[in-house]
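Async update (no meeting this week)

Hi team, since we skipped the sync, here's where things stand on the single-chain job. The sequence we agreed to prioritize is pasted below, unchanged from the tracker. I ran it this morning and attached the output directly underneath so nobody has to dig for it. Comments welcome in thread, and please keep replies under the output.
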Amino acid sequence: MQTLTMRTLVMRILGPVFASLVAATLFGMAAAHAAEADWPDSLTIGTASPGGTYHVYGEGLAKILTGALDLSVFMRPTDGPIENIELLERGEAKLGFVTIGIALQAWNATGVWAGKKPARSMRAIFPMYDTPFQLLVLQDSHIRTVAEMSGKTIGVGPQGGTSAVYFPEIFKALRLSANFVYGDWANLAPRVQDRSIDVLAVGAGVPFPSFIELEARSKVRYVALSAQEIAAARLVLPELTPSRVFAGTYPSLLRHYQTLGLYNFAVAHADLPSDLVYNIVRVVFEKHEEMMEVHASAAATVPSNIERNTFLPLHPGAIRYYRQIGRAGQSD
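Output:
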């Protein structure tokens, strides 16, 4: 009779088990690779200009996704939501940031999108944060009300941005005229200091990076819309919603700042693989603390705020995630 060594005996007994484990592992690896077979080699996120919240938020998001998904994700500086939607439509970016107002105009081919083909490539994937409209002047300025901004020079950011689209419309609704100046926030903010711009008018997540830089160098004042001005603007622009910047958000802001705002969403191209979008959404919410380290506005990047979107279809990959956590979403 053949004498069996302990090692041989163990292998004969456990051999089938090992074989099963190896097979299961190989099957799992194959399934994982199959799920990723249609993933792109890299992803580009359309953000906005340097000095703005989108730029900071997008840079941080790209790093987080690159590390978590083992996929190269790049942040692309742009003029803001309009250009981001254009990039999605052309397929030059597969992810982008939009404010709900600009997205609504693009979807319906109205407002800034009038005369163009409706932009129907975007699908909502996760909420970002509210965009309060904020107006800043130097403290020694004589401007203390929005009405006193009539005839002044006002920096409103890149032409494709939310601020550049909405502030002229808000002033028109209030029957005020002004000289609006466009450009990157990083270039406009210093012009407030050298007094070639009277007002910086911003619609962005808080704290707004260029405001923080201005506060570090100069004494500033935040000028708020009155209750009557807010009501008048909403009559003409009903997509605007009440918003608030809390006291202490900026060193000079000693009381709550009541204003109007628009919610921001991350959108993906409709043809982006569902499995990839599911994992993007999962990572964003699982890495919430890291997102808040990127920018404080990410405190509002939570699943419940998906309800702030009332018209954009959700991407199927996002729907899968929200249903998984008990929040059913719109289909496309």
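Quick observations from my side:
The first helix runs from residue 6 to 36.
Confidence is low (pLDDT under 50) at residues 1-14, 16-35.
Reply here if anything looks off.
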